Amino acid sequence: MLFPGWQITENLECQLPKPTQTALQTWASWVDSMINPEKARIFFRTFEPSHWRNLTLRECNVTRLPLSKVEGKDFSPFSDTAFEVVNNMIVPVTVLHITPMSAFRSDAHVGTWSDRPSLSDCSHWCLPGLPDIWNEIVLSYLLGSSEAVFE
């Protein structure tokens, strides 16, 4: 990650709200200035739950079954920031809020399949299924009406 002032860090689990907000506002500014909403539809997926600390409960090599006791309190400060930025955009953005539904699937959270096994990789999941459901949600938006239950 590159922070203002040219400080470079490899911490991919950074929880600093300001850099996240800055990155999302940069994206939003680009979308608002470059995208014609008459010709394109913009989707933004919120973060899955293991993008913040407390990964020990959500590692593939620890958990093999879905969580049986979840109180629906999993949230992401990144998602809150994303909603704040998206709500102030000119171009309409459909937010795919996958954080709560993904919290139940600790058996399908990010894996350690990268070159650095100590680092969870959000692009490579332990099991198929959860990312497939996210794709089905996008497909339902594309094929269905503009009003969908997951917004």
Largest sheet: 2 strands, antiparallel
> Taking all residues together, what is the mean pLDDT?
71
Distance between the termini: 29 Å
Strand content: 5-15%
- Determine Rg (CA atoms, Å): 17 Å
> What are the segments in which pLDDT stays under 50 over at least 5 consecutive residues?
51-55, 57-62, 147-151
Order of helices and strands: EEHEHEHEEH
Protein name: Protein trichome berefringence-like 7
InterPro entries: TBL (IPR029962), TBL_C (IPR026057)
GO molecular function, one term: O-acetyltransferase activity
Domain Trichome birefringence-like C-terminal: 13-140
What does this structure look like?
The protein contains 4 helices and 6 strands. It has one domain (36-145). The chain has 151 residues and is α+β, with helices and mostly antiparallel strands. The strands form 3 sheets. The chain has a two-stranded antiparallel sheet. The radius of gyration is 17 Å and the shape is globular. Helices cover 32% and strands 13% of the residues. Helix 1 runs parallel beside helix 2. Pfam families: PC-Esterase. GO terms for molecular function: O-acetyltransferase activity. It comes from Phtheirospermum japonicum. Residues 13-140 form the Trichome birefringence-like C-terminal domain. InterPro entries: TBL (IPR029962), TBL_C (IPR026057).
List the keywords.
4 helices, 32% helix, two-stranded antiparallel sheet, TBL, two-stranded parallel ribbon, 151 residues
Structure at a glance:
Helices cover 32% and strands 13% of the residues. With 151 residues, it is of the alpha+beta class.
